[in-house]
């Protein structure tokens, strides 16, 4: 256990599950005081218990069960954090989700209500939460790490078109906010995960069995994941910690680090042997 975040205060959104949970636990183990948050109070408590199990003092953790899609929820998150810990050094904008419409439509016909719902949590809430956190982060010359996705492109994502739009917009937000905020000494960066085993599928209406079947397929197809394994939440948490650690990453501004086991580097045509095609 190192103490690289000792004396720092971090908010990790979406820490009642998946990548956010792993990040909050890692930050707490490395010395940070952490505000954990999500709508599901029971899962949030599980995150808290895991942090306490690691020997972290209870007064280093603040759990706030709230809906980040609302500005009231965001105000509560910032205000309660400042009230308890007195400052904010690190904001991890991780909460996010993909939704389908009732008919599980994909492509351009996907219902516009899906667009609104996805944009609300994956983009708008990050824009407004960043506005609300700005003055505190300027005071500490802090760090923001956004959690994007390889779904942002440049490859097309017709099945999850609105989700992909939200993450592509987030990438441009990361770049633009980074240049705006670096004048105050605040850094903004992002991580773009590939497929990671979390509650993401379940939140989208998939069962655990469906998730597992999908992961097994991807792992056994090198043209999907060249490294041969699905990402773990800690793989992404480690990158978030790197980007939040100024000693290690101070010269990285407005970038997104891709962590996808090689998925975005393979092209469909490479899955077929040219010589076999020519022989047939
Ligand atoms: P999980 O479903 O495991 O975690 C998502 C978290 O976001 C949960 O803690 C959930 O909390 C929270 N959240 C969702 N909606 C809201 C809301 N309205 N208000 C407050 N909290 C909310 O998924 P992941 O860990 O995978 O997702 C984390 C991030 O990673 C997301 O931004 C996702 O887009 C991104 N990502 C994930 C990938 C993957 O393959 N898993 C790939 C690429 C990117 P609760 O349900 O308690 O509200």
UniProtKB/TrEMBL annotation:
Pfam families: adh_short_C2. This is Uncharacterized protein. It comes from Caenorhabditis briggsae.
């Amino acid at each position: 256990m190192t103490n690289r975040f000792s004396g720092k205060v971090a908010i990790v959104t979406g820490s009642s599950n998946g990548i956010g949970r792993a990040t909050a636990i890692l930050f707490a183990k490395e010395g940070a005081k952490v505000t954990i948050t999500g709508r599901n109070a029971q899962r949030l408590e599980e995150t808290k218990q895991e942090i306490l199990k690691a020997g972290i003092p209870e007064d280093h953790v603040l759990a706030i069960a709230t809906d980040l899609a609302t500005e009231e929820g965001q105000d509560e998150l910032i205000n309660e954090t400042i009230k308890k810990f007195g400052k904010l050094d690190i904001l991890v904008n991780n909460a996010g989700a993909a939704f389908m419409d009732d008919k599980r439509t994909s492509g351009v016909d996907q219902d516009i209500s899906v667009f609104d719902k996805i944009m609300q949590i994956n983009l708008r809430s990050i824009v407004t939460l960043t506005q609300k956190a700005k003055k505190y982060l300027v005071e500490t010359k802090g760090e923001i790490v956004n959690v994007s996705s390889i779904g942002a492109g440049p490859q097309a994502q017709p099945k999850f078109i609105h989700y992909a739009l939200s993450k592509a917009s987030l990438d441009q937000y990361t770049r633009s906010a980074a240049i705006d905020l670096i004048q105050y000494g605040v850094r903004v960066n992002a991580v773009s995960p590939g497929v990671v085993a979390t509650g993401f599928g379940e939140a989208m209406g998939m069962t655990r069995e469906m998730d597992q079947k999908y992961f097994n397929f991807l792992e056994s197809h090198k043209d999907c994941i060249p490294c041969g394994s699905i990402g773990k939440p800690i793989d992404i948490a480690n990158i978030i910690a790197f980007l939040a650690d100024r000693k290690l990453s101070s010269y990285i501004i407005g970038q997104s680090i891709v962590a996808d086991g090689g998925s975005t580097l393979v092209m469909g045509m490479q899955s077929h042997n040219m010589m076999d095609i020519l022989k047939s």
